[in-house]
Amino acid sequence: MLVSDLIKRIPSDTKKKVGKANQRHNQRVRDAIRSATRLKLTALSSDLEEGRRRGATVRVSVDQVGYPQEFEHQRIPDDFRLAALLALKRSHLIMLRDSARNIGKLLDNTAGANDTEIQDLVFKMYPAIRQKAPSISDSFEIAELLLAESSRYNLVEELFKIINEDILGHYFYGGLQSHRGQLGLIGQGPPPTGAKIVLYWGVIGLVAEAINVEVEDLTVVVMAHELAHAYTHLGFDSDNCNWDTNSFHQSDRAVVEGLAQYYTEAAAKALMNRIPGVYRAYERLLEKQPPAYHTQKEWINQTTSEAIRTSLITLRKSNPIKLSQFAEKLADIGPQYE
Ligand SMILES: [Zn+2]
Predict the structure, then answer these.
(1) Which of 57, 158, 165, 336 lies 20 to 30 A from 88 at CA?
(2) Per-domain residue ranges for the chain?
């Protein structure tokens, strides 16, 4: 079975749900990322000629097809066909298991429950349920078996292995110079126009089901992550500097993804009151993501947002950033902010 065939089986309203989440939360997520990074997509006007604005608009749109092209011809091994198909029903299986356990306990008259009022009333009013109640444990066992089968194939981790980059959405940017030798001209590259973000609604739907989170919440996580790429790359600091596109492109992935994840986490926390499921969706997805997406964990534990931001805006002014360089910078300036 092809990955694309699996994606085609997700509920048909998923594209609409992703579009709606984008409409509802786009501004909110942008505001959260802008305030976490304290970077702006439009340069401050005081440095510029009257009436001239420098900057980029980065639109977020829902992809037509719903998944990256690379998924089109990728196969899921036959041995894992059932496991992969069951990933499409994972949230229902989890609900069935948990509900069967809960209601099973409620109606189990051998369990010696403290509060037997409901049980007594149910058996009195519906005597037939007394005989049928034990069969609830069959539902529990069915759910457990099928969940174990679906766990044989780690669908989300496998998807990340197909394309070793963002798969739920993507930040596209133009303006790369064709000659790497020109890298010395940091800040002299072509203006970063044509940047845009797409949301792969099919992958979002599939992954949301597989990790048991709401499509809307996962969409917000993806928007935050991709917008964080856009802001860390194109966002102007107070000196009207941003990240040269070639330098951004050639920096260590662990730095680029770590920064996107760092600000996604910050946005998810900031949005918790308005969109409560977002932080959990961030955490659930993180469990499945490859190592480059975990760089921020150490930063969150060991340093401050001020140190991260200062390291970013200082280092992105020169050559592509290596992870070791970023770590050294943090160690260097970290204590100032403690
Ligand atoms: Zn990314």
Answers:
(1) 165
(2) 3-76+153-337, 80-150
